[in-house]
Amino acid sequence: MSSPLFPFDNAYARLDGLSVPWQPAAVPAPRWLHLNRGLADELGLDAEALASDDGLAVFAGNRVPEGAQPVAQAYAGHQFGGFSPQLGDGRALLLGEVIDRQGRRRDIAFKGSGRTPFSRGGDGKAAVGPVLREVLISEAMHALGIPTTRALAAVATGETIRRERPLPGAVLTRVAASHIRVGTFQFFAARSDTERVRLLADHAIGRHDPALVGREDRFLAFYEAVVQRQARLVAQWMSVGFIHGVMNTDNMTVSGETIDYGPCAFLEPYDPQTVFSSIDTHGRYAFGNQPGIAQWNLARLAETLLPLFHADEEQALAAATRALEGFAGHFDRHWLNLHRLKLGLRGDAADDEADRALVNSLLQLMHGHRADFTLGFRRLSSVLRGALQDWLALWGDQHAATGDWLARWQQRVDAQGEPAHDVAARMDATNPLFIPRNHLVENALEAATESGDLRAFERLLTIVTDPYTERSDDAPAALPGTPEQTQGYRTFCGT
Questions:
Q1: Average pLDDT, the chain
Q2: What is each CA distance from 121 to 125, 160, 164, 167, 455, in whole angstroms?
Q3: I want to staple 387 with a disulfide (CB 3.0 to 4.6 A). Which of 11, 277, 382, 477 is the partner?
Q4: Residue 153 pLDDT more than 70?
Q5: Does residue 269 fall inside a structural domain?
Q6: What is the pTM of this model?
């Protein structure tokens, strides 16, 4: 008797009233787009078995694997500031959970597997382009060391779905520490169902903060942990120029993982007001707004948990406020430490003010001269290797404006007393050379969508999952797009 493809243990599906049992929709002609063999091994799965015809049928939704208990999860959410009391998995299903090789519980879930009771009139499907975008960006984020959901598999379905135009359909299989969102708590709080909020919170604590299990103050301590995780996560986004694009409360996890790669993209010229999402018409989720939006979302989470913090409402509110106000300090500490690393600096509290000013001065220069964010940091190491022109080339005929900043930075580096080549090597291990450049992503997705040609996608995936290593063959992929490629660039949510 063969072993099951997934050794499922479905704790979330066993929780009463948090989800709806459901089945994925069958599709006519599945074919492989991507299988992440490295992730399969990390999960303790047999990659060869997953790559079989049986595996293809499972990832397409045509066969429910042994041990799975597919459910559509309930959640609500603030979308662009407006509250929707019922959203839920409108095109997703949690197949089940596995315990990976490190003993961590991980969700295995579909995206694009058909209508559910939460579809709200949608078709529940996904297209090849958005599915492959999520593969590219989530795996790039993982390679950058940023907590993220990951892509285990992507399968074309052989069906046509309707968006602005007909598009080939696909199903993504996503892996997450959990899919519990701020909006999951909001769903039950909006119905004044405090017992299910408590049930959900205890489950989340057991999963993400097991040291808190059984503590009388566990709910407040859990909230404080979520605040800290999100502060660190958004600081990491800011350090690589990532713009999530749709930071609704249903797209913020309590695990601290990045989730839902819809209209996401990376900065090229540094501008904190950059918005790529076609649906973010007022810039609510612009790059520079992300820390403030994260704190706003966390305030909404606190509102759902207040009855669990303390029986006295005023005391509960005071405790939540103190925890939420800690976000700014956590974020600032992570942001400064990450940017110190990007500049090759070591420092302690005595250096904070000067180092923060040094970082902000560079960002202001980048903004004023539209310098590329990624290369503006990466090529600084070339200065320490005696190749000043590599960095100055980013500034065109405006490079003279950088002289004062460059002298201040070099003085700060020299004061550390380290060999320049050691600092440069440390910087190159921190500042990526390769990110998913927007024009390259679009070229890869267009080829996959229009002709089924996956070569550009596969090449780009290889490049962005090794982001720090300089390779002459890949040098063009490190360069920003031309003005023609970047002017008016927009991303779309894919629903």
A1: 96
A2: 12, 17, 16, 19, 35
A3: 382
A4: yes
A5: no
A6: 0.97
